[in-house]
Amino acid sequence: MVKQASPSRILRATLTALAIALTPAAAFADALVDNVTGLTLDKDGKVVRFTGLLLTPDGKVVKLLGAKDKRPEKLDWRADMKGRVMLPGFVDSHGHVMALGFRQIELDLATTKSLDEAKARIAAYVAANPERKWILGGGWNQESWALGRFPTAADMDTAVADRPVVMERADGHALWANSAAMKAAGITAKTVSPAGGRIEKVGGQPSGVFVDAAMALIQKAIPQPLAKDRNAAFLKAQNDLLSHGITATADMGTTLDEWMTYRRMGDAGNLRVRIMSYGGGVDDTVRIGGTGPTPWLYNNKLRLVGVKLYGDGALGSRGAWLKQPYADAPGQTGLGFMSDDVIRNLMSRAAMDKYQIAVHAIGDRTNAQVLDAIDELAETYKGDRRWRIEHAQIVDPADLPRFGKHGIVASMQPVHETSDRQMAEARLGPARLTGAYAWNTMLKNGATLVFGSDYPVERPDPFAGWAAAITRQGPDGQPYGGWQPQEIVGREAAWRAFTMDGAYAGFAEDLFGRLGQGQQADFIIVDRNPLDINPSELRATQVEETWIGGQKVWERR
Amino acid sequence: MVKQASPSRILRATLTALAIALTPAAAFADALVDNVTGLTLDKDGKVVRFTGLLLTPDGKVVKLLGAKDKRPEKLDWRADMKGRVMLPGFVDSHGHVMALGFRQIELDLATTKSLDEAKARIAAYVAANPERKWILGGGWNQESWALGRFPTAADMDTAVADRPVVMERADGHALWANSAAMKAAGITAKTVSPAGGRIEKVGGQPSGVFVDAAMALIQKAIPQPLAKDRNAAFLKAQNDLLSHGITATADMGTTLDEWMTYRRMGDAGNLRVRIMSYGGGVDDTVRIGGTGPTPWLYNNKLRLVGVKLYGDGALGSRGAWLKQPYADAPGQTGLGFMSDDVIRNLMSRAAMDKYQIAVHAIGDRTNAQVLDAIDELAETYKGDRRWRIEHAQIVDPADLPRFGKHGIVASMQPVHETSDRQMAEARLGPARLTGAYAWNTMLKNGATLVFGSDYPVERPDPFAGWAAAITRQGPDGQPYGGWQPQEIVGREAAWRAFTMDGAYAGFAEDLFGRLGQGQQADFIIVDRNPLDINPSELRATQVEETWIGGQKVWERR
């Protein structure tokens, strides 16, 4: 005879089971995304394949399931992906969220192939937006126009003369203004270039292009965007990132007003993408974070992690600070924004309050300067600091091994190499190319290599970056065999730099970057298996769905 | 024979009961604060007495229980107050949270009775804080020193000459600086008083006192406080407010850095008191809120509600803007900070985005100016706007009825009347006292009257304010019968102005301000029944415990 449980005993057992079910990590009432061709890296960076992803109700990974693993019967919900490919969401380690958004609500010249086309685009935009008092935009690159010089205010005046027009260079390191804008900003032949900046001149007169710190001379005259425009720009940017499978991004140089925008979005429940914010300069960073980085806010959607400092300008505008003069501009060595003392003091000021430090360094002189500063500061600020060098673009080969010390993170952008290689050859000459975009050497030297796009300078497309990383070729397949092919990295190493190591670089490896127990369920569904295809197919991979924290936040329609 | 329930039926019933228990509004597993002498106003402003308060687990009032009402058997927790008096938490409708905190970590001169005592206090503070490069503080009032004039830099130099010293007047409308501070700020005999401000002079030289807009000339030289000092100041202020039974406060003129401090506190889980923030000026308000007020943040602890504008200065420093000259300063009519056009444009700019408007108006000229602006703007911005006039201190009797239109809120401070009455008599002469601190007339005219302390100008003690409101007498019982006693308000009307109407004035009447179903359980335990005692006993009431959202956040030790 079977001994029957008494009602009170059953009740007690039920209460106990329910109490367990109510704890967040419970296996009861989980959700299952099933029937996937699942690929991820594990915490050692090894590829793991799976067919089902079990999640908690609040969007964390419980476990990866293989084809033979039994599926739980009790589930909150279940999604059948019909065999499609699931990957962890990408981490873009270097982008500018608000600039990406404004690029989309302002005039975008990124695809223009000539100065005339740019002028026509500007004139058409003004005709279509007669109410705008200032015409703003960006994306131009005189290199793509085969112009052989910077554009001028006189060029732009022939398109629009009756109101100020200001267009940012694709790399964000120069502005092109018309005469009305220069007049509004009070620029005359007597205006002096500020330290770290350069007013381009033609015949002793300001030509209309303002490089690096000189940009501020024009920017101070531009009216601040309205809050509604900031909100709209954010939503555009977020949608763009999600559509490319980016589920987390570093925001490099967040201003106070940008931070306020993110908070408004979080307060209103509109933050989807995870933002690791690096405040623009020490002052704004401290105004935001106070005595240190913020906690993760809005259910792990936003955190002020550290500070972004600018060590120099960009190569295209000859603002990158070089040890030896530019090959194509004798005597010019670019713009070092800070003295050795200033950069150390700023880094020290931020490190003191445990902000992570990320320094923009393009030229070999600046890279050496930042490495020197880290050498010195690492003596004082011990422990797990993850000093970041952003771009690490042109490095003296003698300095490359130094990236392997002090746990330095080299935060690099594969597509910059393929976009810039011809310009870089012109700027540097052949002798200095060995330490240019030296991804593989960074890995060999033991640096943590992480990848991003520097959007909106480039499109925020990780597949374009991944393809560039494993080929050193542009979308046109050029050059054959790859440019400086010794710096090609392996497919899995590149993937890791666009995912889990990007999370690590922002102190977020316990939260996201791969699919594994306890990680946030941030994943994407794509139209092909990126580990199985040739580079041009990899480049053409399309994201079909983007999920963050177990919720679908974007879908291709 | 009793029919026995089957195990499975019991299990189902248990599951159902538990499912109900998990919904937030469930009556199951509530909490009870019992055995209280409970007093509150109901939504019509009538006194309600109760002996128990039933709360939800998340800290809302379920219902008030009378002595005969049955208590639920199943409770999350139960507190026995042993018959002590429970009141709803107070709402201070006009205060300055961060200034209250800094007053406590900087030098406080509020209790000084003479210039010599103030000088001794400053010298002692410098000796005790040798590492401080700038000596900051406030709370002085030359009226309390019987000095018959403003103090001077020369006075202060005899106490401290080797480093800058800047002391704010008790009303926050003037600074007293020593020569080192004036030198650091670059003040000379040639420095011109800015619009809306006045550099006091002696023999043609700056004397050391800077009134209203002239304060900025000194302030710009003072180093910004460190984030850790801001955090510490906030926690001091919060503790002070809670110790006086203030569970919600309007913060009048929140700067961007103050807002960032509140956010850091909220992010770290350190916000206890509820803050209705009015941003300092339109620019900072819009930088914070963007296209409109924020939602309530941090579980109803912080909200940007609107904007604070300053229409004039204060009476003590003769900055209040009067229709006729000061009785004790022939020819001077004070400082109107804004032209009629500017004030309307600013109010309109903020009202357009649905920010609530609160305008500081002390003098009769400014009160008329703001009333004119509201008359005009109410045509455009219809609906429930709750235009606030802060202080409404000296009003032309002809203008008093105008407070009854457009739903105007008169936000007044009872203790100002008792502190200021002798000074006000000197400044105004007898003829203009009829419309001074005219609380009862405001009520009779149909304005919404709300009370606050203007801390740190006065102590944030609602019982002092309540006693002043019902007596028009100071702590010394002077003057006999009360000053301008026709403006005394009733005990319950004053209570209402310090509680539920204060919530209404910040659009928070659905959240707090009284104890009733659905309201947040914000209450205090005090040592006597304020409805049963004489005014001097009322003034001496001590808060024993302060609870916010059903949690004890402060207790007297």
Description:
The structure is a homodimer of 557-residue chains. Chain A is of the alpha/beta class. The first copy, chain A, has a domain at 98-219: Diaminopimelate Epimerase, Chain A, domain 1 (Roll). Chain A has helices at residues 7-21, 97-105, 115-128, 153-157, 179-184, 215-219, 227-243, 256-267, 281-289, 340-352, 364-380, 414-428, 439-444, 462-471, 491-497, 500-505, 535-539, and strands at residues 30-41, 47-55, 61-65, 75-80, 85-88, 90-95, 107-108, 135-140, 165-169, 174-177, 197-202, 205-212, 246-254, 274-280, 302-310, 356-361, 388-391, 409-412, 448-451, 523-526, 543-548, 551-555. In chain A, the strands form three sheets. In chain A, strands 1, 2, 3, 4, 5, 20, 21 and 22 form an eight-stranded mixed sheet that branches. An eight-stranded parallel sheet of chain A has the order 6-13-14-15-16-17-18-19. In chain A, helix 11 (364-380) links the parallel strand 16 and strand 17 (388-391). In chain A, helix 12 (414-428) crosses helix 14 (462-471). The longest helix of chain A is centred in the middle third of the chain and has 17 residues, at 227-243. The first copy, chain A, is globular and about 80 Å long. Residues 1-27 of chain A have low confidence and may be disordered.
